[in-house]
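Run folding on both entries below.
>entry_1
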Amino acid sequence: MDRKTGGELLVGALERHGAERVFCVPGESYLAVLDALYDASIPVTVCRQEGGAAMMADAYGKLTGKPGICMVTRGPGATNASAGVHIAAQDSTPMILFIGQIERGMREREAFQEIDYRQMFGGIAKWVAEIDQADRVPEMLSRAFHVATSGRPGPVVLALPEDMLVETATVAQPPAWEQVETYPGLTQMADLQKRLWAAERPIAILGGSRWSEGAVEAFTRLSERFDLPVACSFRRQMLFDNLHPNYAGDVGIGINPKLLARIKASDLVLLVGGRLSEMPSQSYSLMEIPSPDQTLVHVHPDPEELGRVYRADLSINASPTAFCKAAEGLQPPNEIRWAGAAENAHQDYLDWSGARPEIPGRLQMSGVMDWLEKNLPEDAICTNGAGNYATWLHRFHRFRRYGTQAAPTSGSMGYGLPAAVAAKLMFPQNEVVCFAGDGCLQMTMQEFGTACQDGANIIVLAIDNGMYGTIRMHQEKTYPGRPSATRLVNPDFAALAESYGAFGARVETTAEFGPAFAAARASGKPAILHLMLDPEAITPAATLSQLRRAAEADR
């Protein structure tokens, strides 16, 4: 073993644990790590702002199940990155954030950019620590990979004192991390089979993380054997083929009223991987708390989530991957009392998502979605942040395969663009489309430069209505006719793309969209299509004026 610096040991540990990419904004506080990366096999993506870098790391974790790696400098770099850490926490995404830190001898003096990271991140990260000795780097990195991925995955934050990174040590690297799996017991699976046999109106809801392509396929087979209606939780539609005859729709914002009624009327809910937090639970009104009226079977990899909000009739501490493998042995009853329920639920979904509402203006988003549904390949990856514009994607796009969706259940604006960059870098063979509102896009617009620099040929749909649309919607519902602090004056996004040497096009009518998208594809460059949406078209179901009049009538 050679004597190495803390920075070299850290990069060596990342290589040992299979890190495939580092997303970073450089800083003088971790120069020794950057120097070690110069000789490493790990590609480095240089981002424009730490929040974007952390969101890229989160998207990597979502799409691969392995920890996304982010590196930032101390103080302002860490505070900027906290946006991505919060997303990873609420979305149960494995991620490791490395923060350059002040020298050890300067602590407690409020040195330049000094922050106590245990205190700062303690409430949102799974584990926060500071590596005080170079010879402990391999140990701490091994622990970080295991903590980030075990149980309910989440973010780990490690601070790196500047002088520790140049300190030398002779220490061996441990073996690469391995996923700690949690399997269901045979008794629990037998209990589940009995409960399914006794049910009359069962439904499954899939969510959370710790899934795999194989797990999705296994659960699909389970649904077919039991003729079981299957719904997906908020922004987790990729967990079940949306055109499969058993798919019932998504349990999120703006839920199909028929699906909502079906879940409330069910006598058994099989919740796999998810938590049924505020958005999918319809502000915690979907089930009674703590004891639901329905029989609840809750499958989750973290025992602390079982019984935390909902007291399940059967709690199964297992990852979705392990549960779905074990579920291969479940056999349906001789007579399925709910026969036909899945077919009816799927037809309800098709009717709901197949409706094509007409909105004000020359650009019809239903026409945009129709074109995309006919022309996007099944393995296209779609990303988005937060805003009313995302309704068009969630309601009208058919997610067909696992690993084709990256969106924040935390509702964080600005996520779609950096997520698309990460997705394209990791899966260059897949088409990647980013949906972003004008407000959402400008939260992380600078990361389009990262896409151009790294050759991530994403296609961004900048859906521009000149406002923070979701907030304006709520204003009209609550304070009709009194808009405040929601108007936006925007740049020409197409021209901005061209200034980067990328492709840009302005889309003002439905007919212009298809040719513009095709031209973006053919350009072989990152692209922004600037979609000009009428401000009145605030949701697929209502205009701003309609919302205002309804609110005024209720007064």
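>entry_2
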Amino acid sequence: MRLSSLFTISGTFAAAAAVSLVSAYFSVGMIETASKSEVLSELDRAGLTWAEVDTNGLQVYLIGTAPDEAKRFQALSTAGRVVDAARVIDQMLVEEPEDFAPPHFSAEILRNDAGISVIGLIPEATDREDLLSQFGDIAGDAEVSDLLDVADYPSPEGWDEALRFAVGALRDLPRSQISVDADRVSIKAMTESGEAKSRLETTLSRRKPDDLQLALDLTAPRPVITPFSLRFVIEGGKAHFDACSADSAEARDRILRAATRAGLEGKANCTLGLGVPSRRWADAAELTISKLAELGDGSVTFTNADISLIAAEGTSEVLFDRIVGELETALPEVFALSATLPKAPEQSEEGAPEFVATLSPEGAVQLRGRLSSEIARQTADSFARARFGSDQVYTAARIAENLPNDWPVRTLAGIEALSKLVNGAVTVTPDMLIVVGNTGNTEASAEISRLLTDKLGEDATFDIDVEYVKKLDASLGLPTPEECELEIVEIIGDRKITFEPSSATLDSSAKDILDELADLLKKCGDIPIEVGGHTDSQGRESMNQELSQKRAQSVLDALRGRLVPVASYTVKGYGEAQPIADNGTEDGREANRRIEFKLLKPEPIEEVQTTLEQVEEEQGAEAQADAPAEGTGDE
């Protein structure tokens, strides 16, 4: 009985132990599965998809290759938030670091009256000494501050071209800040005048390499406008400005909006300048332009604080009186209004007197019509010759009586107005002066308006119909580098730049060619040109190469002496290596002894064929090889 009880108790304990072991086994399995699943989910939510999880009992193993140490530590931290960190076993690897990325190369160049300062990081391949030497040439006697660092990495694509362009631009900009990157150059600079600003914008934009981004921020000082003037005309329902000045951008915008409401169409230019007679200039201009629109045809002219309003012939006197009264009441105190309602002139039996001066595109001037005396005719002729050149003036004006007392003044003012044009005509009548023509100056209408107002008075009636032609603008109508290269060939033609025998000294006969080339190259600006020297095959090859180099240098020095901008020019002696004729004859040797000008163009970037393009090309070649031949023969 007692033995049976003992076996029963032992069996019970054994069964309990077995049940406990089975329960523990399944519990551990559930914990492993749950831990693995939860850790994987948390790693995925953290974007650490490269990490894998394995478990062994309560231990959690992290497996995988981390991109870097930071990601490995992040994976450990993420797993530690799910299970006890003591259970996490790190079996992760870390990728080997790649080569360090090259640094960002850039340079900041500042130039002012004190000198040139340059700071930045440049590649070791950049010739630092040569760069500083160029800065020294530009700065002259001023100081060059070198704050450059150097890194031993390859130069990024486009760096040398960008730096060369920036140095060239620095030569033309005495007060400037230039930022240089491999693919971008930013320039902030102060220019001497509006004309210089336009010229530099055109030159720099044309000179930059094709793949370079250029950011230009050029400013010019505001001119002092004397007299501060504005002239607005409505004729036949069409409105235009002959002159427009404003003291601020806000004033300009207000004036132009008022003109648009009065019938102005298209773009109009209003010069910002100094010398405004009143801070209420825009108020007076806006008001007067609006009243002129109510009046209809006519003109309004501001000369400082004096305003001249001239209505068209036939304007209602009631309307005219109302407009003038409203203006006199509303204009700011400093402004004085003079209003005129013209009456039709009386006609003589000979018709209205007239004087006409014409200017042809070739520069020839003709003076025709009526003048009041022989002295007046001689004065007009001398004045025109002084303005246009003695050989360009032909005078055919006749002497007439009963001309207005101010006729000589009006004719001389007309001739002076004509000198502001490239071609055109001026017609002078007793009650009107008409100027028509073409110009390359955007400010020509304003300048003519100020001139006629000053010479004829504020009440003078004149009409200006001057068209701005871009190709006539000396600051914009510059030849392209390719056009310059062709014009060089045309200038030289059958002639040659010659030298004294076996010498690099220019022959006296080369003077005319060099003078003509210098005139052209000054217009071309700073373009990359190679001056190449060539010889015949007589003598030793090394001596010929040296002689050709010296001759090319002599030509460059001669152009520099004629004030040609040669900063971007290079010289190269080819010796006898590139003959264009047979060196066995005297004529051939003479032809081979020459100077050539060649425009340097950036070398095209070789396109790299992609793998897909190679596969397509190979497939196409195979298909062509399998196709039946359609014919034979060379193409």
